[in-house]
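User: Look at the shape:
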Amino acid sequence: MPGMTLTVLGCQGPYPGPGGATAGYLVEAGGFRLLLDCGSGVLSQLGRHCPPEALDAVVLSHLHHDHIADMGVLGYALQTESSLGRRSGPLPVYATREPAEVFERLRYRDVFAVHPLNPASPPEELVIGPFRARFAPTVHALPCLAVRLECGGRALAYSADTGWTEAVPELARGAHVFICEASFMEPEEPGKGPGHLTGRQAGEMARRAGVERLLLTHLYPRFDPDALVAQAREVFPAAEACVPGVLYEV
């Protein structure tokens, strides 16, 4: 089985800065393309790496708009490509089912096959193409799931949006790459955003999980990413900020 790769399509939050995009990560293995979150601006970045009709699955950590904003235009894209004969069959989408009215809006015509995930009792494991997917509930304003993807003996973990919880480093334990949110700075900002982490807290999660590499994400466009990285490196030296467009070997 060929190795797992990660391409960061967007890593800002809760809104994209100029030319940027919010949460979106393309994970590939053995020719299978999985999109992890689909925030604002992600679809335009996806086109630099593969056409939308080439996606094989989507996993949505939660239903805040900075993580799902481009799902509607992805639906338009797939409908158009299907009508032109370049896509057949619905795209599997795995998503938390709350709020119910937002979840129901994901069912756009017949282009998506939507599979609900229950954050209160997530599945122990799902097989999605070549990936074994596991989940853990996070601490956030909406029900949200951290995600772990394993393939070919390699593991990628994603915190999604979360405040401090031991469930996330437990899910990420031993991962080769850990994408972790770092929304706030210390000491000026802690506590201002319930359901989010500081750079230092992200580093502490990585240290507790014993991961190989930490990529900081959910970066506020007006913060200096280098300052967040410096805070994370106080407790976890192998920390860096996500760089959109870069292909990472997992």
The mean pLDDT is 93. Residues 4 and 116 are 25 Å apart (CA to CA). The chain is about 20% helix and 30% strand.
